[in-house]
Amino acid sequence: KAGVTQTPRYLIKTRGQQVTLSCSPISGHRSVSWYQQTPGQGLQFLFEYFSETQRNKGNFPGRFSGRQFSNSRSEMNVSTLELGDSALYLCASSLSGDGYTFGSGTRLTVV
Amino acid sequence: GDSVTQMEGPVTLSEEAFLTINCTYTATGYPSLFWYVQYPGEGLQLLLKATKADDKGSNKGFEATYRKETTSFHLEKGSVQVSDSAVYFCALSDLSGNQFYFGTGTSLTVIP
Fold first, then answer.
1. N or C: which end of chain A has fewer CB within 10 A?
2. Does residue B6 sit at the A interface (CB-CB below 8 Å)?
3. What CA–CA distance (Å, rounded) separates B64 from A11?
4. Strands B106-111 and B11-14
5. At residue A39, does pLDDT exceed 90?
6. What is the band of A95 on the pLDDT scale with cuts at 50, 70, 90?
7. Which of helix, strand or coil describes residue A84?
8. Do A55 and B51 touch (CB under 8 A)?
């Protein structure tokens, strides 16, 4: 079966712009979580969606938002980009909390 | 709150050496425990898991045992290969199963 698909794989944006990242979970998985990974901070939890509702949220500013569609696909949006937002953004889906399946990530570079 | 602490890296080993990466956790109740591996340029892959005390997770020669008394889940492999070079993350899921907590990752390099 297809894995978790994240698009695009790479993205370069300018400070002040906004960006939207997409994640298609494994078929049947209704929970989708997003993480930011940086060399200095490791993996930091952004938010988790289940059946189109945000169920958990990490400690990120309001510039970071997300949503989930009825087909479980999810998007995350970052507005007013800052240099410090440069990171690998990972999406993960799960069926029942019994372990995540991660996508390959979107590498965002803010210049 | 729930948290995971894993051994600082980087770790460098010769091929066929024994590997241990320490992981301890703090959690309410009995969480599920996981090890994930991340190869360069990739996302994280589930390596193994254990869902209750004294369970042993194993995969690809790696093993980890859920020790409630020491709140630990150390990763071991008897003979590492160059292809095992990666970053390893210990993680737990909270009682709801809805949120995961990751350690900071341990980078392993295996040299021929």
1. N
2. no
3. 37
4. parallel
5. no
6. confident
7. helix
8. no
Name which of A6, A26, A41, A98 to mutate to probe chain B: the one with the most chain B Cβ atoms within 10 A of its Cβ: A98
Give the Cα separation of A45 and A63 in Å (integer): 15
- Mean pLDDT computed over B35-51: 92
* More confident of the two residues B82 and B96: B82
Name the residue with higher pLDDT: B23 or B93.
B23
How many CB atoms lie under 10 A from the CB of residue B29?
A: 7
Q: Is A70 left (phi over 0), alpha (psi -120 to 50) or beta?
A: alpha
CA of A61 to nearest chain B CA: how many angstroms apart? 19
How deeply is A84 buried, as exposed, middle or buried, from its count of CB atoms within 10 A (0-12, 13-18, 19+)?
A: exposed
CB pair distance less than 8 Å for B89 and A43: yes
